[in-house]
Amino acid sequence: MTTKQNKKVNANWYIVGIDVWLGVAFVMLLAIGAVMVASSSIAVAENSANDPFYYFKRHILFIGLGGLVGVLVMNISSGWMNRLSRPALILGILALVLVLIPGIGVEVNGARRWINLGISRFQVVEAIKLALIMSLASYIVKHKKGIQNSMVGVLKPLLVVVVIAGLLLVQPDFGSAVLLLIITLIMVYIAGARYRDLTLLGMLAGSAMMVIAWAEPYRVKRLVNFVDPWQDPFNAGFQLVQALIAVGRGEVTGVGIGSSIQKLFYLPEAHTDFIFAVYAEEMGFLGVLLLIGLFLLLIYRIFKIARDAFDQGNDYAGFICTGIAVWLALQAFLSMGVNLGMLPTKGLTLPFISSGGSAIMMNIIALSVVFRISYENRKVNFRSHQKEAVA
């Protein structure tokens, strides 16, 4: 191959700007999610909407909407994302306040987490996750030395998260509050915060969360039932017991797609919070290994893109990708852990898999941000290769 042909191949590779392995993991997770939503929601959709594929159609619609917004996001540079990060977070916090206003906020099963948009409902916390990561990345880049040298530098972003967590606890949404707190602590740790500062603040935050958890009887009941759900298998421990039965029925190869028994009104929230249990039942241990492998590949590639951004001096882009990777990894781990009885029950969906509108949309938009930064990394690499070739 001639030098001219080599340049052309490299140009095509870098200008396209698509991380192939990230794209493969992303598309496969979306495909598995669509199939599992169709399978796990048939019974409840037939019963509630008289259409066995109601939730599947809704899921596909929101994947399409997320894709359209994602295309727009991919045309926004990381520099503009930096400028828009603070206004986005402020709007998100205001939206969390609006959720609490009757008539604007929608209450479902005792929780007020959604804004009524007329044609649909939107769960604000899903947007807050990305807005907080973008704002934290901007703060870290501007105040990195302060974070590394003083507790005040670490305390400032935590105070913002405390305000957000307070609004989430009023809804209530304890799981998301804990998730945002952990994301913040990990991001400031990666920024170089001192161990003593993180240890002290982490202990204070953890103690506060424990007090809040024990203050509500239903949270205490969840903790007790998590330790031994079989002591009350037909009431408080019912959901976890049914999830464990589903996982056990899957054995090595699963019972087959569409053949789950537990989704037939035995397992509550089978198409949302507990979709992983249905997946384990239908796909078995081998299918679970495949799903975990895809998540590991996805997270690894996002961290790889973050490292490339750091190497090129684009710290803001690097911290955004780091935050998104931590968010998706933590939420996937927590969701799977709850389904497997390793963690107390929380209202967290499995990214890219669970049925939902705002959740799947924000997952796709977050990946669009990563794809944009991957494109910028490859563009910089291509230009450096061009300069080397000219030299």
Name some characteristics of this structure:
391 residues, mainly alpha, 3-stranded antiparallel beta sheet, 15 helices, 3 strands, 3% strand, globular, disordered N terminus
Task: Explain what this protein looks like in three dimensions.
By secondary structure, the chain is mainly alpha-helical. It has one domain. Helix content is 73%, strand content 3%. A hairpin with a 4-residue loop joins strand 2 and strand 3. The protein is globular. 45% of the residues are buried. The N terminus is likely disordered.
User: DSSP strand (E) fraction?
Assistant: under 5%
The pLDDT mean sits at 84
> Which class of secondary structure composition applies to the elements?
mainly alpha
The biggest beta sheet, please?
3 strands, antiparallel
Number of domains: 1
The count of helical stretches stands at 15
Helix content: over 70%
Indicate the low-confidence ranges by residue numbers.
Answer: 1-15
How many strand units? 3
- CA-CA gap between termini: 20 Å
Supply Rg. 22 Å
Tell me the strand order in the biggest sheet. 1-2-3
Topology as a string of helices (H) and strands (E)? HHHHHEEEHHHHHHHHHH
Assign an overall shape: globular
